[in-house]
Amino acid sequence: MAMIRSLSLALALAALAAPALAGPVSLLPDPVDDDGRVTLGELFDDAGAASGVVVGQRLGATAVFEASQIQAAARRAGLEWANPQGLRRIVVREGGAAPAEASARPAAATATVASRPGATVEVLTYARSLAAGDIVQPADVVWSTVQAHQAPAGGPQDADQVVGLSAKRALRAGAAVTSRDLASPQVIARNDMVEVAYVVGGVELTVTGKATRNASAGEPLPVLNVQSGRTIDAVAVSPGRAVAGPAAQMARANPQQFAAR
């Protein structure tokens, strides 16, 4: 009897120690916060006791989070969010700012708005300073309001366009994001040994050579065949791997397709 009571007490304590599941929750259609501390209650309906759990910081007019990051934080707090829309990013805006689609630009500047004196627009800016070679993470970019004349021409319209890219040079916090600042991360360095695949008609032949230059995924890469002394015109697709032949042109447009092989 004493053993049964001890077991029952242990089970009761374990139940109290575990997070209480609040059941399925739904992402709010337009998450906002007012103090820069983004909480589960500002992201989900019916977050209950987990409403005050902080999942990140908002440093500018908006903050961008990975959906998987939010999903994991919710689960740790006892909430279940299935992400039925398959979102990749979640944008949280400052209370009172214009609504924004997840990961999309809040309000695109038009020629009419930009032409008005004193007009302002939303542009993607760096939330922190980046060193050359740093990879842009979702928390590294935020939407900020600037004077229309300060908005870069052709700036990215979506955070997804820059997350995962590498800084070409040192970039300061608060600066507007431009495409000339960023490039695909370098996957092959000069003198690296590289496996080059020649793919045609479902048949793949491979040869190993030495890279003659640095290359990012999708960039042309001359590879020296050290046995024959001949140079192979290839395209880098992933660390230590490149493709040549008919597949090279496709790899320049979509290196991820070949990196997964």
**How would you sum up the major sheet?**
5 strands, mixed, barrel
Our measurement of the CA-to-CA distance between the termini, rounded to an integer number of angstroms, reads: 61 Å
What is the domain total for the residues?
3
Continuous helix count: 5
Order of helices and strands: HEEEEHEHEEEEEEEEEEEHH
The coarse silhouette is elongated
Strand content: 25-35%
Give Rg in angstroms.
25 Å
- Name of the top-level CATH class of the largest domain: Mainly Beta
Strand arrangement in the largest pleated sheet: 11-12-14-15-16
* Overall pLDDT level: 79
What share of residues is helical? 10-25%
Q: In CATH terms, what is the fold-level topology of the largest domain?
A: SH3 type barrels
The CATH architecture of the largest domain can be given as: Roll
Uncertain spans, ≥5 residues at pLDDT below 50? Answer: 1-20, 107-115
Structural class: alpha+beta
What is the number of beta strands? Answer: 16
Primary descriptors:
three-stranded mixed beta sheet, five-stranded mixed beta barrel, elongated, SH3 type barrels, Type Iii Antifreeze Protein Isoform Hplc 12, 5 helices, alpha+beta, disordered N terminus, 261 residues
What does this molecule look like?
- With 261 residues, the chain is α+β, with helices and mostly antiparallel strands.
- The chain folds into three domains: 22-94, no CATH class; 111-183, Antifreeze-like/N-acetylneuraminic acid synthase C-terminal domain (Type Iii Antifreeze Protein Isoform Hplc 12, Alpha-Beta Complex); 186-259, Roll (SH3 type barrels).
- It has helices at 2-17, 67-76, 111-114, 246-253, 255-259, and strands spanning 32-33, 37-39, 54-57, 62-66, 89-94, 120-126, 141-147, 166-167, 182-183, 186-188, 193-200, 203-211, 215-216, 220-224, 231-238, 241-244.
- Residues 1-20 and 107-115 have low confidence and may be disordered.
